[in-house]
Fold this sequence. Notes:
Elements: E1 4-8, E2 12-19, E3 31-39, H1 41-51, E4 55-63, H2 66-77, E5 85-88, E6 94-101, E7 106-108, H3 120-124, H4 127-132, E8 135-139, H5 144-156, E9 160-164, H6 173-176, E10 181-182, H7 186-193, H8 200-205, E11 214-218, E12 224-227, E13 232-235, H9 248-261, H10 266-280, H11 293-303
Helix pairs in contact: 1-9, 9-10, 10-11
Amino acid sequence: MAAKIVIVGSFNTDLTTYMERMPRPGETVYGREFVIGPGGKGSNQAVAAARLGADVTFIGRVGQDVFGEMGLKIWQDEGINTDFIVRDPNHATGVAPIFVEDSGENVIVVALGANQAIQKADLDAAVEIIAQADVLVTQLEINYDMVAYALKLGKEKGLRTILNPAPAGTLPPDVVALADYITPNETELEVLSKMPGGEFTAQAQSLLTTDDQTVVVTMGSKGVQYVRKADSALIPSFKVDVVDTTGAGDAFNAGMAVALAEGLELRDALAFGNATAALACTRPGTARSMPHRDEVDALLAKSK
């Protein structure tokens, strides 16, 4: 039986420009290519999880505009349950202008639009589906109150809960305590912990309120470091030819969620997430870069 994943989160239309290098302040540079495509952390994670073989339900909002239609199309194409997507009459679909330089590094500006209008009623409508799932995932591209409500519902229904605190933001400790797994990158960890950078093990430990919680710090090409009250370890990444790192964090979170839902132990789940993220970096774009299950399995088999 396929793993059942519920993702509460964002959809943004990515407006991506590829260029040799980023402009300096006040400077104009030429872009080599411009691409419009589906994105948003929640949607990217939903697409990635579906391609990995999970039964995925996505809960979110889009506007009644052409960008909203783009979201519905990709979810339907990927076999994602869209029964709980609300077409918001008062807010435009979120957009994300993205700039990618030849090194693969990127900068992103997000206008969240309808994502910020998600309401408790949207989640309450999906309670039965949530109760049947294995894992619930949410991020910080939606209203923070709804992040808390989603995690609370997940915990009440006995799901494993994953909080991907991206983009970087500060949440009350009682909200962070609702997440079984917290998956910041190094910058997000500094913001979330309210501690200066440097020793991220101490930063991660500061977020843990129970023995059952795990912080997973994503560190790009270095891999991921998990931190629990009892132990900590580095799970290395996979060496690939990097084309575009946009969406790698979303790929990792989806891979980890699917692996945990399938019953893998933590180290194996993190390796599965790393493989998913690595493959996403080998092609341009966000949702369109997410790998399929056979690709991830092949990379993992090759590394053994």
